[in-house]
Amino acid sequence: MLVADRGLCSYAHLALLVQAGVHAVLRVGARQMVDFTPGRPFVRPSVRRTAAVKGVPRSRWLKALGVHDQLVAWLKPKTCPSWLTREALAGLPETLVLREVRDHIGRPGFRTRQITLVTTLLDADIYRVADLAELYRQRWQVETALAHLKTTMRMDVLHCKTVSGVLKELTVFAMVYNLVRMVMCQSAMLQHIAVERISFLDALRWLGAPSTGVPLIALIVNPARPYRVEPRVKKRRPKSFPFMVKPRQELRQQLLQQELGG
Prior knowledge:
single chain; 7 helices; about 15% strand; globular
């Protein structure tokens, strides 16, 4: 099962996942039209985007499963994505039967008010819309994991100057991150709680100094807060200096020339 954001929601991605036997729950892209009107018109892949077809979906309506729940057929596009070869595109099926659903978010503090998903899970009795929306909500843990990498482990700034050095640096970050997750999993098993409740920072500190005598079962447990909201703001004011877009030696020479000229 792959749960992903809009960046992977395309016909090619879904077709490749289906061929690999992997189910998917993806958020529909902002430019993809979704209309839940039964029997609505659709635009074929050979038709170019013009004002006459603006707002008309490119999927063929098949069956209504609910108010905002329907089966549709996605048609293979004529244009090939840059990351895919022509041969691979030709090997994909001409149509995909998929399910489109929409769920409204009425929880205060959330920026998104509704989400539209496309999935290969077609049985509406087994996979309810609310369950699919909850599954997609759990995808946000990926963003938390990236924040741990970039902020807690300070991977937002890489210090190597060569490609091979950067790759080695990323490899070391990945190794340390997985070691921290392993410590969190072991502590969660000992404390009989979900692994995401274990403090990532506390596990990182324990991994750096395991000789302190603190047992794994004593790692900090964060409170359960699945619907916590935080403002999207910066805590500190940025400095007004310009960015360094030239080598430091060049900038030093410019400063020396300014002093000599003065």
